[in-house]
Amino acid sequence: MAARADLRLGIDVGGTNTDAVVVDRDDTPLAKAKAATTTDVTTGIAAAIEIVLGELGDARDRITHVMLGTTHATNAVVARQGLRRVAVLRIGGPATHSVPPLVTWPPDLRETIAAGAMVVDGGIEFDGAEVAPFDADAAAAFLSSLSGRVEAVAITSVFSSVSRRHEVAAEQVARAVLGDVSVSLSHEIGTIGLIERENATVLNAALMGVAESVADALDEALGRHGLAPAKYFAQNDGTLMAFEYALRHPVLTIGCGPANSMRGAAHLSGLRDAIVADVGGTSTEVGLLINGFPGESSDVVGISGVRTNFRMPDLVTLPLGGGSVVIAGGDGNGDVHVGPDSVGRRVTESALVFGGSVATLSDAAVACGRVEMGDQMPPPDQLTALSAAIARSDAMLTDAVDQAKIVRGDLPLIVVGGAGFLVPDGLPGVSTVHRPPHHEVANAIGAAIAPVSGQVERIVHFGAGGRAAAIEGACEAARVEAVRAGADPERTEIVEIEDAPLAYLTDPAVRIRVKAVGALRFV
Amino acid sequence: MGKSITRDAAPATGERASRGNGRKRVIDVDHLPVLARGCAVLGAGGGGDPLIGVLMAREAILRHGPVPLLDLDDLPADGLVLPCGLVGAPTVAIEKLENGGEGVRLVEEVEALTGRTVVAVMPFEIGGSNGLIPLTWAARLGLPYVDADGMGRAFPTMPQMTMNLAGVSSSPCLLADERMNTLVIRADSVSWTERLLRATVDAFGGAGVAALYLMDVETARRATVRGSVSRAMKLGAAIMSGEENPIDALVGEVGAVELIRGKIVDVERQVTGGFVRGSAIVEDAVDPSRLLRLEIQNENLAAFEDGEVRACVPDIITVLDAHNGEPIVTERLRYGQRVSVIAFPGPDIWHTPEGLALVGPQAFGFRFSYVPMKDGDGRAS
Predict the structure, then answer these.
(1) Could you tell me the domains of chain B?
(2) B334 interfacial to chain A (CB closer than 8 Å)
């Protein structure tokens, strides 16, 4: 082959815009594009691809990989569309009957997804013993009663993070009884917390059809340009899954947008530990970068009313954006309301500096000399309110920056997003403010440059080798996971080790969670 | 005070449910969110996340109907009360959920063992998830829930119950797991009960259910913290109804001192001897030179400012989210949270010399003696 094949196409589908960017082997952006996100999502993706490839020109043939961060899965759950009918099998009896599967779900979503649910005997104790032997006959009877009425099976065993053997055995039963159905196993999906992990596993099973149709749509859009690159999906921790893996784990794509934008900010600025503020038209998201990755929330995250235990980026969301509406208080003494109403994308028609009639934070930024935009200055009688608005915005940002930290001390702040000009050049608690080039497509860049990851979670008693041996074992397992997902073994490293004790036990046991990430292996 | 467990007592003569003099209170599914918040406040940061208790109780109540909440005065004096709850690791409890029938099994065993009829179920610990879990069993059994408990808050061990102070024997202690494995402990002392119970719970897989300090209603009237359940519901209601300022609403309801309102600037945790020990530092929102240090061992045990004790066990120290007043359990404390730390008196019985010996600061390894909590101006309150 004459031309080098070394380019990657990153695509991020956001609420407002679908962004696309092409980067080279050194992760340098060569072309970028923004298109409006469409209701069907797929049309917007095709449009963004069209534009970015147009800008790239002949070099398009050098594209070897495409990375997609998309809201398809979230939209499908919210709209209750395109979801598969799922048989919900829990292996945990005689334990766990006190809270049957899916009782906490919104009834309409449960109706849409669940063809039936059952708890059969089995499951694992935290020390690896069995709660009870797995009742394969009961599982087979349940599944065959749903034969012809389900397209997917969700299987969750108690403490499958300690041993997955009952889930694997149940998968064999499902395939024997139902033939070629999609099967989702909880140990591949979530962490400790049975209800939340089971919920996520059921959502995952329901979303497998959506993932397949996205894959087909992307193939078609790329095929139109004669491209057939290796395909990856971005996931909620800022890393990638190979398409084949993503087709089995579509629920992990939920929440990938903020992760992508933080990873993009890290890459564009060259900083590994910093605060990131992504300032859009309506809202600002502030999060913490730890070792180049988004800090994750320890709280339960709900998806459309369903509790899950996903690790989502821990973000402080502020109602501040370029289009945020500023309303002066009645007495003219500088009292103002800022947001949450926003003119959004219409800022270039509605804002005062563009001759419109709505005072926005963009007008405030112009009035305070933070940016030049539009064709006129805001009227003098608005200046008091606008400068009060920017002061309010700065105070909210300061507070959010502080909340995002996990330790005391100043950190650099990376500003990305279309309305980054709202952020001043200095804030309390911030050492330096960085505004890297291409910051407006940081999220698509985050997708394009993302590494692949592997994660394990175990409960261990510190045996003969003690803590060090237990942690090393978990690290090795995480590395193997990452390599299996497509990472280059030479360039795979452990980025996170967390161990949390189990309280109120006499014989101390510890839950260890380790994540490994590695750069994509090029073939 | 003698041991009050009698095996030769006549079967309870009273009706199983309410004697119905006047107030008829029931706990229905709508009450659970309120009760859960109150239990979390009384948990002083420990006792496990009440959410799992809400889910269990909700299922049982939806299936079996609301549970009458009765004062001990409304139960027959010679009826047998079952103090009970979950024991073990909260992490296990959120993964290997209960069968739901364990408490029913406990009652069957107790009735077979004593030849007496259990007239009501009582949470032995109101703080955390244990304020709610026994409701599941009460609903299934069609028994009332006693408006009382054995701690008035959360503590880590079985000897730390008011029944122990009152001379009620901890034996027989009955344990069950989801397989309906059942064990009866007849121990020579409550510390042996504790030791055997912990070993059994480990063998069960890290969590199980227990009933101990069996007693008749008459004994329970003097040996328990009365009104705990309704207190929890009042505290929860204060948080949920105090829309504009839930913390002030709660502080007013409970007669608490707000020790500080500010930001967590440091959290440190380690495991020693099966307990999570650690500390957290809160910086005052208005005057950053003011720092409050919380000492934690599963629960929040003591609060210090400038080297002085502001509050300590057995008084209840609870960390609340400064925005919405939601109680925050110790596992979830982290840097940057905006919090209010409140303290309010633990039950009176814990302030006696005998009570302090069991649950005062020295019982948790501190060197100082109990001091009443102080408000921001250093006044004892």
Answers:
(1) 25-230 (3.40.1610.10), 250-364 (2.40.390.10)
(2) yes
